[in-house]
Amino acid sequence: MPVPESTQHLPVPPVAPDAQRRRLRVAQAILLLFHTTGFLGLAFSQNPGFYLQFVPLNLLLTALLLWLFQPDRGPIFSVFSVVVMAVGFFVEVVGIQTGKLFGVYEYGATLGTKWLGVPVIIGLNWLLLTYMTGILARFLPVPGFVRALVAAGLMVGMDVCIEPVAVHYDFWSWQFNRIPLQNFKGWFAVALILQVYFNRTEFVKRNPLVPFVYLLQLLFFFGLGWLIR
């Protein structure tokens, strides 16, 4: 009997061997240490600027650990990664230059070196969110486009938690100090396009570290946002 399209690609990983489980626990411990240190430093330190300088490093570390647990790191996955980073970066360039996609905003110094007014590392952020939410959505036994909608919603949900923290710590700033609804609409539209691309790209879409990272980042930004209100 043929397997329905909505379920045949669902990730059902085998039980990991002891070595794989140990690697996973080590990676989780490293990420938990970095995020906990950053959370406490930003929330309670008299010098949050010291901790903010490590934001790009934390993003790079998270990307490296996720990459290590990605089973298929061949050419197709590499091309997918480059395309998503490029799209994410240049969408931000258009957003900064025109104010038409997300509203009128500009980047601060926290995210590091900028090109065309946009931090170079922002493309990596788009890739991580696209990749993680795409994998999470694949656990749902629904058609591909519905999974894309769910994953795009998860991306916007993360952005809702990030925005107050990002503004407070000079990741970026908005005109009139107001986060416009247009930002979330634009995010959803771009995220949906990237999720459709994710679904149509053939590589192994399974990563045991993804649920932990997504939940950790969600709690990190939600908690900071609650404290700085």
UniProtKB/TrEMBL annotation:
Pfam families from the UniProt entry: Caroten_synth
Keywords (A to Z) from UniProt: Membrane, Transmembrane, Transmembrane helix
Stored InterPro entries: CruF-like
Regions that span the bilayer: 26-44, 50-69, 76-96, 116-137, 144-167, 209-228
The protein's name: Carotenoid biosynthesis protein
Originating organism: Hymenobacter persicinus
